[in-house]
Amino acid sequence: MTKSELRSQYKALRKNLSDSAIEENSLAIANKVLALDLWNKTYFHIFLPIEEQKEVNTEFLLHLLSGKDKEIVVSKSDFASRKMTHFLLTDNTKIKKNEYNIPEPVDGIEVPSAKIQVVFVPLLAFDLNGNRVGYGKGFYDQFLAECHPDTLKIGLSFFEAEKLIADVVKTDIRLDFCITPKNCYRF
Q1: CA distances, 67 to each of 39, 64, 72, 122, 148 (Å)
Q2: Which pTM was predicted?
């Protein structure tokens, strides 16, 4: 299937998820992340979920990272340039939803992309090769291209892998892992 077809299909699937299913599956995903060999890393980038899009609730992961004294990084999106600026998440960080309902830091201590060692990546669908389908704006592909080559890219999905995304292009950045409530895919 193409990215466009998968985008439509998985938006519809997510729309049908109940709040309790989102919480239960998000907790299962966080528990699977615990088993990954990544806890020697320091800088972890995490997305704050768009509740209206029924994204994976990363609150459980935030608690895990905080409990392990990790440096947590969140982003602010600039829709004009399609770039993301990354900020350290601290007790003083003020979070505000933007016009697209994306929770973002208002300001804070900026962290360069090259310093980030692990990125939890939002997605709608992914395939067995580690390719992903997002919302189609290219924010994460651009951000991931700026990261160090050794940065771990970990997708979080409520659903299992598709066999193949038909229209992958060379600027698409592949995942290293994708975690679902039932499986941990390694690419």
Answers
A1: 11, 5, 11, 22, 25
A2: 0.96
